[in-house]
Amino acid sequence: MMSNKRLAGKKILVVGAAGNLGPRWVKALAEESALVLAAGLGLESDDSLSGVVGEYPDNVKQAELDITQSFDPEELFARLGVGGPIDGIVFNSGIDAIPGTGHTKLEDYDRDEWARIFGVNLFGIVSALNAFIPWLANPSSVVVLGSLYGIVSPKPALYSHFNGGSGSIKHPAYGASKAALVAAARQYGTHLAPQGIRVNTLTLGGVAAGQDETFVKSFQQHVPQNRMLTADDIVPAMLFLLSHDSQGMTAQNLIVDGGYTAW
After folding, report:
1. Is 205 left (phi over 0), alpha (psi -120 to 50) or beta?
2. How far apart are CA 118 and CA 113, in angstroms?
3. By the 8 A CB rule, do 228 and 208 touch?
4. What pTM, to 2 d.p., does this model score?
5. Is the CB of residue 82 less than 8 Å from the CB of residue 61?
6. How buried is 263 (Cβ within 10 angstroms: 0-12 exposed, 13-18 middle, 19+ buried)?
7. pLDDT tens digit string along 188-200?
8. DSSP H helical ranges for 68-171
């Protein structure tokens, strides 16, 4: 009997499998009966990811990977104990500052801080994608994680309560790197289409992740749905982009934000 799970038997690489969203993607893919290749930094120390691995030991393999450094995909897959080709990639890697920890003026962010953000969020992801292209099946799907701040500017009012009321400005390199990533995914999506490789961006709005109460209350007032996003909101969008259901989509930016960027 054939499985009704859309990704059953598929090999999906999740780059950036630790952190807030990584374990959510890994679990969702394992639930779909995919073989999940979890890669990134800090995997062994991530309790959420360890819990997923313990729950789905036959569906998840993991290996450390630093996308800011050159690496050999063949060596990585050998450590994961699999061979090619692979059917999909989720690029979840990214760095950002904890809300409220930023500077109070845009000009206080220097060149080194900009380079650090871009080194992971754009250059690291693009370099890793270049390395993995020969390993991608025909057909296959690549999804890169965007951000609403790649579309709109952060609203100062959302961060004004930090630092004793002095406020905090979100790192401008974060939104800039995510905007550049959308553009890169658009070009890769069009150019790789003849090889059967689809590349799309999944842009998310505010995802609930233990933010402080004042921030959450303020943020929700700017969302038409008046709430933060949950795993139930974002996981179906990711599965859609990775599956055959989105076969006619490439070089697109799918936005899931509760309507935040619509007004």
Report:
1. beta
2. 9
3. yes
4. 0.95
5. yes
6. exposed
7. 999 999 999 999 9
8. 73-80, 111-118, 125-132
